[in-house]
Amino acid sequence: MKKVMLVEDEEFILQGIRCIIDWEEISMNVVSMAHNGMEALEMFRREPADIVVTDVEMPLMNGLELLEEIRKIEPNTRCIILSGYDEFEYARTALKLDVEEYILKPVNEEQLRQALIRAADRFDEIAREKAGSMEDKIGWHRFLNGKLEGEEAEDFLGMLPEIAPGESVTAAMMKIDADSLEAKDGMQEVLIELQKLPEKVKTIYLSPDTLFLLLYMERETGSLREKKTSDSEAAERSGCLWEMGGKASETDGIQGHPKAESSTACEVLRNFQDRLESGCGIMSFITIGPSIREYQELPSSYKLISRLQKYRLLEGYGSCITESYIKERKNQDVVIDENFLRKMILKKDKEGALNYIEDLFINNLKFEVDVDVLYQLALKMAILLQDIKVEYKLEQSRNLQALTEMVEKIYQADDIFGLKTIFISEITEIILYLHTEDSQYTPVVKQIMEEVRKNYKEDMNLKTLSYKYHMNASYLGQIFQKEVGCSFTQYLSNTKNKIAKDLILNTNMKINDIAKEVGYPDTSYFYRKFKQCYGVSPASLRGMKKY
């Protein structure tokens, strides 16, 4: 459903617009309503809308000024202007701002309805156009994943060099550190350096910071096989993680010996990586697959090197690894003492908490923990911090991160030091907020929060609560948002999801039964709301219990 924001300084007109349209019928949902441009801009920053319907003349910030600011945040948002003035200057400015419709008051219901439908269609059209520019990249992804057949597959095969007799191909994936590209001419310098390689290389541009490389090398004759076997095996044992002490032999490359060919490719790419770093200051992380003789083997090689990319978290930029290195790593389990960390945080013992985090991640480096276990450990820690934030009503504090933000940062972390920094920063902020006095709520907001805690299973909404407490629903929603830091609907959802999370982790109840227990008769809707809150599905969270 498309998200809609309504902006109008006259409360009567605002409520009228809200009520004259059957939003569900046109697959739309009003997510926010504001009385001036400044208030609307703050709401939009918290939750961007797909369509904005706004008046022109408003206090603090008019509608056209609002749209200028919205365009800076989200250029694709569609806008509909409402105005009581048939002014040419207004219309001309609206045209520059790519406004969808300019509707004169009084607002005609059918005219507004059709304008909303056209705005939604235009929003989808822009999304399709944007996706179209990604067609080639998506096509390569599908081809490399073995998802194309027939003529489609032949089209991409035709773009690859023919594999000559006696030639092998090694696939590699090269992830570039975006920070090291900032002062450079983007990916252009990397491509220029690749062209300088004496070996034949096919480069496929997968994303702004990722290249897929095919390195074509001659297989040497069998007469050299016995002489070079020992060097080849030694190079393969090194796994091509050069800074760990291994160095592949310069005489690798025995016919019919894929390991030796992979080691030679690793040497070429590692040397290239060193030149790129020393000459251009560009850091990269390269994963290399085994050599192949025909392109039919490409999907399995692509799958392998894509999977190896997650080890960037442990090895960091500047590394070049193969599957053999990962297989030979010594992995040990590392567990988090959740009770101890929680105790340190709630005691406001910043030094104790940060020392524990420092030791925990140093141990991960020392014992070379498996990367999947490390991710699970990080997710458990993020959930622990979220529980503390919810319990002490800190989850909406400006400098603290939502769980979904933390999860995203965990999976985007470049190395283990970056991962450690995420938690050090968040724990520091939590302790800082715990030192401040608890937020003071007005009596009516306290009553509503208590009602939610007691009756969260019921079908609650601000309209029924406003009758109970003899207040205007819109005004009640505004003071609740201002004091609690989120809308009433979001607060109710957060409460339900927290209780559901406890049941998932601490009972053996079925997910369907848990959904009903917390007031979600529709299990699929529960899944969607839970994942929005915690960044993982209920089933995935339950699967984490084994860690």
Question: Describe it for me?
Answer:
The protein is globular. It is an alpha/beta fold. The chain has 26 helices and 10 strands. The protein has helices spanning 11-20, 37-46, 63-73, 88-96, 109-132, 135-144, 150-157, 178-181, 188-195, 225-238, 258-280, 298-308, 312-315, 323-328, 338-346, 350-367, 371-391, 403-412, 416-435, 443-455, 462-468, 473-484, 488-506, 511-517, 523-534, 538-543, and strands at residues 2-7, 28-34, 51-55, 78-83, 101-104, 167-176, 200-207, 210-218, 284-292, 320-322. The strands form 2 sheets. The protein has a 5-stranded parallel sheet with strand order 2-1-3-4-5, sandwiched between helices. The chain has a 5-stranded mixed sheet with strand order 7-8-6-9-10, sandwiched between helices. α1 (11-20) links the parallel β1 (2-7) and β2 (28-34). Residues 131-135 and 221-262 have low confidence and may be disordered. α2 (37-46) runs parallel beside α3 and α10 (225-238) crosses α11.
Could you name the key traits of this structure?
547 residues; alpha/beta; five-stranded parallel β-sheet; five-stranded mixed β-sheet; 12% strand
Shape: globular
Describe the largest sheet. Answer: 5 strands, parallel
User: How many β-strands, per DSSP?
Assistant: 10
Average of the residue pLDDT scores: 79
Structural class: alpha/beta
Tell me the helix content: 55-70%
Q: Could you name the ranges where pLDDT drops below 50 across 5 or more consecutive residues?
A: 131-135, 221-262
Q: Compute the CA-based radius of gyration.
A: 29 Å
Q: End-to-end span in angstroms?
A: 37 Å
Give, in spatial order, the strands making up the sheet with the most strands: 2-1-3-4-5
Strand residue content: 5-15%
How large is the count of helical segments? 26
